[in-house]
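sry for the spam today, last one i promise. struct tokens for design, 379 residues
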């Protein structure tokens, strides 16, 4: 685009902004930009973000091809300099669009990477890292932008949870908790990642190979440390929001994994006595049943499994647990009936047995959250 055309576009933007007092910083921004332009439409900061916000999303994402970390660093340096000249103000709409533009570019590049059995490569690439850097500029602009940042960080953490990139989950939650230290959902997501990491770490057979005993002990220590950190995160989440029932559910499960049966039983008992989402209530009865069964309280455990099955009659996990408990109690006939009813529901589609998706937490919400943030950048 010729330089004159760029100037015309910016002057028109400035004229439009002058009619809205709340957007007066945009006028100053465009005046500063006039001194920055040295060529085409990508020669001033956030030009591609402006294209993205105008609806040319695919084009803007494609134009990021070849951008290096040095290019992004240069734009970030320019933005920080402009921010100082404008008394800390930058155009929020363009910054938000830039965050989503680089988020989408990260997703695009991830899809181009080699995959093994559909498992994506973990790690935050340069575009995700740059979007995170832009958040630091955006978050100080206004309460609305601060909320955008909180939603974005939460969505990125949940997206990493969906792919079981648990180290990435913790990178995002650490970033979020730096800005929002009293955010209970972020603490819940962080605790979920720690719990999942421990659950996916197999307990080593310490005596099967004496030569690897020290390595096995180290694995056990790492597993226990992950559970202890998860317990701290979940305790903190509940302290901030006692009605965050998923945190209570996971805390009970973590305590059981830490072999603190009495504490786990108390937490889960308190959960099943509350009004909660059906999937949380179902898992609460199921997990409480396991704690009671481990403690030799088979009749009480059986009743909890029955309660879980009552919440979700098509449940596979609760049916199996109840059937095994009935066999142990010597009631083989009912055990067979329970399994027969479970088989009648197979194969089960949506909604899935919540036990099968427990390790994912609320990761299924990630894409909807990102879609809402994208929609909010449209002009």
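last one done:
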């Amino acid at each position: 685009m010729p330089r004159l055309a760029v100037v015309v576009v910016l002057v028109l933007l400035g004229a439009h902004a002058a009619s809205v007092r709340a957007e007066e910083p945009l006028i100053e921004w465009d005046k500063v930009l006039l001194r920055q332009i040295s060529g085409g439409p990508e020669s001033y900061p956030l030009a591609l973000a402006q294209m993205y916000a105008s609806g040319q999303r695919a084009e803007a994402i494609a134009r990021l091809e070849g951008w290096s970390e040095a290019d992004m660093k240069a734009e970030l340096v320019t933005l920080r300099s402009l921010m100082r000249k404008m008394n800390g103000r930058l155009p929020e709409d363009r910054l938000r669009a830039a965050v989503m533009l680089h988020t989408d570019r990260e997703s695009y590049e991830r899809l181009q990477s080699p995959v093994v059995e559909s498992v994506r490569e973990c790690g935050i690439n340069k575009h995700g890292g740059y979007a995170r850097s832009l958040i630091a500029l955006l978050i100080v602009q206004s309460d609305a932008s601060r909320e955008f940042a909180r939603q974005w960080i939460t969505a990125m953490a949940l997206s990493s949870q969906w792919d079981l990139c648990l180290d990435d989950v913790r990178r995002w939650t650490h970033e979020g908790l730096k800005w929002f230290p009293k955010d209970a959902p972020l603490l819940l997501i962080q605790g979920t990642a720690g719990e999942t990491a421990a659950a996916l770490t197999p307990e080593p057979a310490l005596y099967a190979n004496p030569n690897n005993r020290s390595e096995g002990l180290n694995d056990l220590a790492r597993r226990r440390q992950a559970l202890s950190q998860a317990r701290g995160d979940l305790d903190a989440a509940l302290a901030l929001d006692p009605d965050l029932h998923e945190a209570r559910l996971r805390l009970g499960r973590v305590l059981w994994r830490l072999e603190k049966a009495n504490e786990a039983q108390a937490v889960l008992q308190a959960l099943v006595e509350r009004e909660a989402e059906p999937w949380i209530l179902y898992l609460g009865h199921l997990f409480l049943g396991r704690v009671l069964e481990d403690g030799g309280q088979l009749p009480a455990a059986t009743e909890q499994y029955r309660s879980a099955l009552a919440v979700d009659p098509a449940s596979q996990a609760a049916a199996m647990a109840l059937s095994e408990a009935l066999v142990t109690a010597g009631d083989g006939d009912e055990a067979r009936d329970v399994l027969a009813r479970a088989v009648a529901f197979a194969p089960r589609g949506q909604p899935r047995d919540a036990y099968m998706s427990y390790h994912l937490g609320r990761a299924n919400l990630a894409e909807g959250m990102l879609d809402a943030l994208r929609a909010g950048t449209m002009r």
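The chain has 18 helices and no strands. ok im logging off now
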